[in-house]
């Protein structure tokens, strides 16, 4: 997160004695990425954050691959993913490679009886249905429909939902998730042409400090395994912190679309970048205004990226047979484009209410067994007259 933030109490100078009111010292922790070269935060803990008591059995949660090498365009009926009580068990990885796992989850219950950390991946949670609060050791972030939650690797968190009706698109990214470099100046500040700015971020707030000893279960995802560690102190024992490495939220409704006289290419919708994929937000917007404009996209041959589009809400101008929660996969290697009739049918239209999230990966995606269960099986023929 390329802005500075701080919460709670911190010492005047880093790496110096920070005394508790009743004696003893707070324990400093550097929480960083990319060795000591990436963004980092310094947090101050009531207890040493290293007190592992037990290590339990690890569970293999790696995705089960059904199609290793795919060239089939596919459509997945996302709301057919069955709700499950547990936040992690609800996750169904659908499209995966070594860079990212993309999946859906419909968790019914809040995650409050253990703590969770993804040690390998930054997590992006896109909230399609539901609301609640993301709770972390660096503060809390209330979320609602349309929010992206970006949770850097290593963040310990819990999540509280307001109801049992929750639908989440998630990406576990093995590369850090950043805002696009071209939106930022050399200091990191978002530029005037960026479709969003720092004011749009939902930063952690309401830091709560728990000075508790006992048994605290933490499930840690690492190398496809879910490890279970029991800590002797409450993981949310931070009295204060500052720095650049922390979770944040951003509402898709705050993305300001860039439009033009003629059709604008997908990069104008870009919201996040990594070294291996991009995330774009397709939001309600006015259509192209050249007198001869064709609002529907041209056919395009994304020869070296797999294109995953998650349909959130509104109408989907260039597609037929698409509803909320559907995912389309347009694999690298073959062109795709508007469905029959939609190219001509788009002429003269002034605006769209479409809302969608796109994830384009630079390396091919594998299709999981979970994905095949919700694959409509015939989408690849949907461009025939
Ligand atoms: Fe496309």
From TrEMBL:
InterPro entries: HgmA_C (IPR046451), HgmA_N (IPR046452), Homogentis_dOase (IPR005708), RmlC-like_jellyroll (IPR014710), RmlC_Cupin_sf (IPR011051)
Cofactor: Fe cation
Keyword Secreted: no
Keywords associated with the record: Dioxygenase, Iron, Metal-binding, Oxidoreductase
Record-annotated Homogentisate 1,2-dioxygenase N-terminal domain positions: 106-250
Domain of life: Bacteria
Cross-referenced Pfam families: HgmA_C (PF04209), HgmA_N (PF20510)
Family from the record: Belongs to the homogentisate dioxygenase family.
Protein name (record): Homogentisate 1,2-dioxygenase
């Amino acid at each position: 997160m390329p802005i500075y933030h701080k919460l709670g109490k911190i010492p005047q100078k880093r790496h110096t004695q920070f005394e508790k009111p009743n004696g003893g010292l707070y324990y400093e922790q550097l929480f960083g990425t990319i060795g000591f070269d990436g963004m980092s935060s310094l947090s101050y803990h009531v207890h040493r954050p290293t007190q592992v008591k037990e290590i339990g059995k690890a569970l293999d949660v790696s995705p089960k691959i059904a199609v290793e090498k795919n060239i089939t365009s596919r459509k997945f009926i996302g709301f057919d993913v069955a709700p499950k009580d547990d936040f992690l068990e609800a996750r169904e990885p659908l499209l995966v490679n070594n860079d990212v796992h993309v999946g859906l989850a419909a968790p019914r219950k809040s995650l409050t009886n253990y703590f969770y950390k993804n040690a390998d991946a930054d997590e992006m949670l896109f909230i399609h249905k539901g609301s609640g609060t993301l709770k972390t050791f660096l503060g809390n972030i209330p979320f609602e429909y349309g929010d992206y939650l970006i949770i850097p690797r290593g963040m310990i968190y819990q999540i509280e939902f307001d109801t049992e009706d929750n639908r989440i698109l998630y990406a576990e990214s093995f590369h850090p998730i950043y805002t696009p470099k071209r939106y930022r100046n050399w200091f990191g500040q978002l530029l005037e042409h960026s479709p969003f700015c720092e004011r749009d971020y939902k930063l952690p707030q309401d830091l709560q400090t728990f000075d508790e000893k006992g048994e605290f279960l933490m499930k840690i995802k690492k190398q496809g395994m879910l490890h279970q560690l029991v800590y002797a102190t409450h993981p949310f024992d931070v009295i204060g912190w500052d720095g650049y490495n922390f979770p944040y939220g951003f509402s898709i409704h705050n993305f300001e679309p860039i439009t033009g006289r003629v059709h604008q290419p997908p990069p104008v919708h870009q919201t996040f970048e990594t070294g291996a994929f991009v995330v774009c937000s397709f939001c309600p917007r006015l259509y192209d205004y050249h007198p001869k404009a064709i609002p529907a996209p041209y056919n395009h041959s994304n020869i070296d990226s797999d294109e995953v589009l998650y349909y959130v809400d509104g109408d989907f101008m260039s597609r037929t047979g698409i509803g909320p929660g559907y995912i389309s996969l347009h694999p690298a290697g073959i062109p795709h484009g508007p469905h029959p009739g939609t190219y001509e049918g788009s002429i003269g239209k002034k605006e769209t209410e479409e809302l969608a999230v796109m994830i384009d990966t630079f390396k091919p995606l594998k299709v999981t067994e979970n994905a095949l269960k919700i694959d409509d099986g015939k989408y690849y023929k949907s461009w025939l007259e």
